[in-house]
Structures are given as C-alpha cells and as structure tokens.
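Sanity check record (used in CI):
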Amino acid sequence: MLVDHQPDLLDDNNRKAAIEFIIRRTCWSLSPSSCHHVVPLLERLISNENCKLITHLSISSTVEPTTTTSSNIHRTQVAIIGTEPAGSVLGALLSQSGIDSIVLERHSRSYVESNIRAGLLEQATVDVLDDIGVGERLFQNDFIQRNIHVQFDGERITFPLSELTHGRVATTYGQQFVLQDLIDQRIKSGRRLWFDIESVEIERHDAADDSSGPLIRFTRCGNSNEECILCDFIAGCDGVLSPCCRRSVPPNILHTIERVYPFAWLSLLVEAPPSTKELIYSANIIYGFALQSIRPPRSTRFHLQVSLNDTLADWPDERIWNELKRRLKPNNLSWTLNEGPILERALFPIRASVTTPMQYKRLFFAGDAVHILPPTGAKGLNTAVKDVQSNAANWMNGHRTKHNINIAQGCREPALDSFIVNSSDPCFIQTSYNNSEQVMSEFGQFSGGGFAGDENCRQGFSDPRQGFETCAFNSLSAALDPFLARSTRYITCPNSIQLVNKLKTKGQFQNTFLMLVFISDVYHYRCCAHNFECGWPYYSEELWLATWNNGLCASMHAASQVTALVGPNNGIQVTIVEENEYPFDDTIHFHFQIIETNTI
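Expected output for FAD-binding domain-containing protein:
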C-alpha cells in the first residue's frame, strides 16, 4: 500500500520500517482495545500530508564557509556555548530526544570540574538529573534536607520542608560533582564536548534567510587554525560575562534589570562537619545575616553579611568565628558551632539581574548569561536547569524525535486549554504535534488510546511529554494491577515488578534510587509517581462522567457505549453509543436509545 500510494518515500530502510510497522499494528489490531483495523489505518496515515517517513535537516543545505578547509567544518543541530551547568544539562536533554549537539567550553576540563560553587539541588533539579541518567552517584552521596531552620534574633523556627511540599526535598550535592557526572556521561557516550576553546565568534544567527543556518568560528588553545560549526540553533550558556553570546545581540535589543544590594557576602568553606543537619538562615538586627549550608561529608559552607567597603584583610579567623557564633546561636538552646580550618574564602557584592530577551532569532540563552541571582538556596544553579528543561522544546520544535508516544492526543484531551494558559509557550504544543507525527508514522495508535492530557496540569508540570508517556505505558495490559488490595505495585514499564529495597540501574528500570518500596522515610519515588497502576480502568472509567444536574458528559475521544439513568427524580434510562475515528477525524457521532421507566 505504501508503494502504491507514495513509492518515492520508500528506500530499502524505509521499506523495512514500514513492514515492521505493519506487523506491530497487526498485533495491536487483535487487541480488544483497538478501534481501528490495519488497512484503514494505513490508508489514513498514507493520505495524511503531515505523515513523512523522511526527515530533512536544515543543515543538509547549509552554505559552507569558504575560508576554512572541509576537515575543520563540523555539523550539528544545536551548538552549545558553555558547560556550567545549563549547557551540560541541555546537551543531555537534547541527546535524550535524539538531537545532536556540540558543546564548546573556554575553560579546561579540570577547572570546570573543580570549581566549587552552588551545592543545593531542588527536587525538580534532582528529577531532571535522574531522568537524563546522571543520578547514580548523586543518590549514593547526597545529603537530604527535609527541614530548614529560619532564625530571627535567636528565635529559631523549623519549617518541615518535605511535609509542606508533599514529600519533596532539597538535596545537598555540589555543582562541581553535577558537572563531573554530566561531562563523564557525555564523553563516554561519544558526544562532542571540547574544552580550551578560544576566539568564539557567531555569525548568521540573525539571518532572515533560513537557507543558511548559524555559523560559529573558533580556535583551540595553542592552535591558530580556525574551525567552524554549522548548526540550526545556538544555545548561549557562557556564564555571567557571556563574552560571546550576549554581545552577539544588538545592544538596542537587550534590556537588563539589575538590583545591587547595599551589602556584601563573605563566603567560607570550612573543613568541619555542620553544627546541625539542616540549613540555617539567620537574621540578627544588630549583627546581620548568616547562613550555614552543608557540604558532605565533612565540610560546611558559611555566608556572612558584611559591609561593601570590607576586604578579606578585615576578616581574620578570630573575627569570623565570633560573628558566626553571634549570628547563628539560637536562644534557649544548647548549641555548639563546629570550627575547623577555613579552606576557601571569598568576598563579593550581592546583586541580582535579569536580561531579556532569552531568545534572539536562532540564538537562545540560559543560566547566568541571562540572570544572576544571589547564592541563597543555589537559585542560580536550579534556575539554569529549569531554563533548559522548560525551553528544550524550542530546539525540538524543528526536529523530529521518537521520545513521545502520541503526545498530540494527550494535548487535545481536557488539559489543552489549561495547559496553554499555564505554559504561555506555544513551542510546547507545536513540539508535541511535531513529535507525534513521527511516532504515529512508525507506531500508530498505542493500545488503550490517548487519555493522559490532564496529567499536564499537575502542579509544577513543565514538560508536556512525560505524563502522557507514563499513562501510555500504564494502558498496556501487562502493566495493570489485579491485586490492589494486596499492595502489589507495578512500575510504568510493562512486566516490571519491584518490591525490594534495591537499586535498579540497568535494563528497563533505568532508575538509580529506591522507588515504590514500602519502607518508612523513603521518599525517592520517581517524578512521575502518578497513575502507577490501573491505567486501563482509569481510561475506561473516565470516558463518561456524571454531571451535577444528573446528566452525562462525554469526556474522552473514544468509541464507546454507556447506559445510565439521566434526568430528575429517578431519571430515564438512556443508552448512548459514541462513534468516532479520533485522532484521524474530529467528527463524533452519538446514537441515543431512550427507555422510559415508571417514576415513583
């Protein structure tokens, strides 16, 4: 049929893929949950203009520079300038979606991996790191923060962070370790990451003509030979100074809002165990602010509020320890400050700034290149990860990926309007449809249909793919749980049961932490810990819903039949048959059969 309809789309590889597709779809058609047969499905897929078996990348027609040799020209889809940490996370996210990238870093690898900076990871950041496969060492060496101490003039208040956030925690794990894990993973996987890069220049990123994509020129340390990267998009993750990316935008386009605070911070790294197991934020109206953070296993980070006019010479060790004791000691509590050698000390003014826009033509920004935040709570690190996680869809918008399982259906379920309102980013929706085309062209409708759009409205949800994919797995018959009363749990992968307190790091689990185990104080459930079982019952039960006025609501796109009492008093018995061919046709037919009953 493919040969008859569009033979120009089929080469040997595509013909093999088409045969495999037919075999898979034939198996699915034998399932009671299937609403379509193979032949009409293929006819609709073939006649669909958006269903292509060949994907053309814009870099295939990119005009090559004439001033360099072909051996010095590199091609990729996304060029990432800078590793710390937005660039490294973005590279992993893109790779996970099948998008190629090259990362350029001006510093040496040893510098990047040893530069001690932020050390507190929010739950969302931990989830991202685990999702991209760099969570194993993190979970083996982390230090969980379930509480935070906030202190005013010696009066200490403990906030149960985990309890107030439904089990979410803060994790102490140094940024240098995060980068070590990301760099190690990228190099071992053979993805391109180059250190000691100099003289980076960006060209054609603002070209109105899409026929020639952006061009990056650069040299390597100790080598004067110029090299070039041809790409589709550029990610500017080159830090606070942004020596390359931000200055590639016309000055009249950039707008920076900055606030400089009337004090500085003295930052200290001390070789001594923390005096408490939790973070301490302490404000004293006489002496000023102090913060204790944890750097496991035997180090502590302190921050002291000091005058803008102070220098490091103004703060000898004796004065430092006296001030820390004054500001951190709680009233009416027995408490001792653990002292030790001061390994590092730095003094810097506190400021915050945000630069807009985050996108200029084909150049995107993330991390410190567009926002500088005070070090409290490691917001710089966590916001950088959020930047690339939320905006990764911008780069995927023009590239097809096999990651999703029919996302477009999920977006068209009841969540669509709410998700667009909450997101305000059209790239999410466009990316979902682009990816859906690729998935549908290869796999067709998955068993059970698309029903997980409402998962996109979960609080804090920023990626329109994950919830839908989770529920798609749950719709498979092998993933259902027939023994809920016995507390048997299945994870989202079919045929995978896990009831033991043991790390799973290989195979279909791909999890580097404890999950779904019934043990006290175990909070390491995967981020998509919703809808673990009963995927098919959930779908079937949500097809038709009762309304407040004794009516019926057809809440899902699915061929189905329902019989219920409708209307006031005891109502009348109504049987409704819904017929549709969603997602290939939006037309829905309802057939009604009404049986009047005697009312009392």
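The mean pLDDT is 70. If this sentence no longer matches the regenerated tokens, the check is flagged for review.
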